[in-house]
Amino acid sequence: GIQVEQSPPDLILQEGANSTLRCNFSDSVNNLQWFHQNPWGQLINLFYIPSGTKQNGRLSATTVATERYSLLYISSSQTTDSGVYFCAVERYNTDKLIFGTGTRLQVFP
Amino acid sequence: NAGVTQTPKFRVLKTGQSMTLLCAQDMNHEYMYWYRQDPGMGLRLIHYSVGEGTTAKGEVPDGYNVSRLKKQNFLLGLESAAPSQTSVYFCASSIQGYEQYFGPGTRLTVT
Asked: What pLDDT shows up at residue B73?
């Protein structure tokens, strides 16, 4: 099956710093999503981004489908950004999202 | 607009007991999913449904059954719980091929 690898596995930042999270996948996909799981366990959909670039406030994401990777940028990080960030992909016509193991982000004041 | 809701939020079972987890969504989504999340891991798909009356197996279906009798509800059943089924269970819904929206999760402990 398709492999989804996220890096780095852990990231510790001071408030105000910028960061880049990476997601590599091993096959062509028609669906790629980024999620944030907050410290209370809630999963929030950040981006639906099978290709191209999107921005939402301090967060932006870029997917280069031909090279099989996606990047999530967090600028001016805040303590509320702490949690685990997951990338998930779906191969064409499978109806199944496959999740990576996540990047755990801790932001300190 | 409640989005995706799950009941119960917490449950403790003894080995061999059965239970049903209920997921409900009010977004008129065709697709619904059940995942499990174990410590330090991503989510793994148990079963999913592409519409009322349909179900299909995901990555880790063994030991679970599902039913989708109404479009807005998706039930996950454990017929004979095992300690290996201790996990956090998440339900999600979506329009085909687009963003998935998740419920708050159910924390299940099997002793």
From this structure: 98
